[in-house]
Write a structure and sequence with these properties.
Elements lengths: L1 H9 L2 H56 L4 H9 L3 E5 L2 E4 H19 L5 H32 L5 H12 L8 H12 L3 H21 L1 H17 L3 H8 L4 E4 L4 E2 L7 H5 L11 E2 L5 E10 L3 E10 L2 H11 L3 E3 L11
Antiparallel strand pairs: 1-2, 1-8, 3-7, 4-7, 5-6, 6-7
Helix pairs in contact: 3-4, 4-5, 5-8, 6-8, 9-10
Length: 338
Amino acid sequence: MKLLSKKEDKKTEKEKVEERREEILAKGRKFKYPFQWTRHRIVVNTILIALVVFAMIFVGGWLALYRIGMTDELLFNITKVVPLSVASVDGEPVRFSDYLMFYRSSMTSIERQSGSQFDENSFNELRAEYKRSALTEAEKYAYATKLARELDITVSPEEVATEFDRHLKIGGVDRSEEGFIKIIKDNFGLDKSEYERMLYLTLIKAKVEMEIDKTANQTAAQVESILASNGNDYQAVVDQLGDKIIYEETGGLVDSKNIDGGRASEAMKLEPDQSSGRFVSMNGDGYYFVKLINKTDTEVNFVSIKVPFTEFAKQFEGLKADGKISEYINLTAEDTTE
């Protein structure tokens, strides 16, 4: 004991302070490390729970979209953020959001206008029909997007804005943007961004059609030549070109707001016996020529010639025949869930 005391006495004050400090730290570690281990466990458990929840959401969403075939607004909004594919056309992914956009816009119109006229079985059959139509439409636009990229064809935001403004004034009515958005929301369930997406797809497909359809371009040039040589005699065009074109008459005055590809609104700009010249239909499926017969402030009487686009449809059907369209949802199964 005396020897130990002597050794203690020989220690400097600094050494004694360091020893005391180490004793205190050693006692503190008994409390520190168990707490660190607990915190580490909490973090690990939290991550595991988050992964499980994410997996459940992922599996649930996958089942809802790809197996059950649900089309509600929540899933629609998810597909607008997450780039999910509903099909593939010649290697080009088909956006799930586009498919749901076309389907929901069609069904909203049916439900609001005449949904009550159908019994449950008939309504389910109608839904299945519109799902098929919406998926095919989305596939066509995906293929048009692919061709546009290959042909270096683009549609600018300014072109979409111009087309949007043109739709505001369909039928000669200068609608407010707010009023027009309410109309498309009430009738088609679309907001402005979704409607602009539809306009973009329509414009890109129309540009592609005009670029690849040499036959339609040649026929339209023939129509222009014939009309220029005979004083806008549309019947003479029919006699010369036959089934290369589609000739129509209104048979009398019709509403200038007619949804007819833009013909009525174009005719309203003309004077009697004046011809419009070539313009692309609003749904981008061909060229129109319109000749005004007569009009009032709200109605119009005209004849029209349509030069339909056919090349794009031929190519698309060729892809189907060659098995180059893959669909990731089953539209043949009975679907009663919304």
